[in-house]
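Class, study these two lines:
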Amino acid sequence: MNRTITALLNTQIQKEFEAAYNYIGFAAFFDKKGLSGFSKWYRVQAEEEKEHAMKIYDYLCRINQPIELLPVPAPKYKLENIEQVLKLGLEHEEYITGLITTIYIQAEKEQDFFTKNFLEWFIREQFEEEESAKILIEKYSNFGITPQGLYILDREMGTRSAR
C-alpha cells in the first residue's frame, strides 16, 4: 500500500473520532436545553462515528499497515441555537464525504483496489449520513419551530437506536 493512502486513512481515523467529539458536543447542547431526544440522536451518531474510526483501524491492521493515532481537537464552534447545530451536522457530514472521496480518488490513482473496495461501504454510509442530516433540518424547519412540534420531534428523535 502506498504511504500516502496509509497516511490518509490514519488521518481519517482522527476525523471520525473528531466527528464523534463534535456530536457529543451537540448532545451536550441539547441536554442543556432539556431536549433528551435530540441528545440521544447525537449520542448514537457519536457512537457510529467511533465505529467508523475503528473500521478503518481494523482495515489498516488487516493489511499490516502502521496505525498513527493523531490528536483529536476540541470542537471549535459556539453552539447558539437548534438550527445552527443541525446545519453544522450536515456541514460536517459533507466534509467527511469529501475526505472519503479524496482517499478513494487516491486509491484509484494508485490502483489500490483493496482500499477502493473497502471505501465503497463508507461512500454508501456517507450518502445515508448526509440524507439523515438533511431530513432532520427539513423536519425541524417544518415542525420544530413551535413548542408542540419541537416536543414531538424531540420524542421522535429519542427513538433512534444504534444500527
Notes: DSSP finds five helices and no strands in the chain. The chain has a mean pLDDT of 95. The radius of gyration is 17 Å. Residues 113-143 form the longest helix (31 residues).
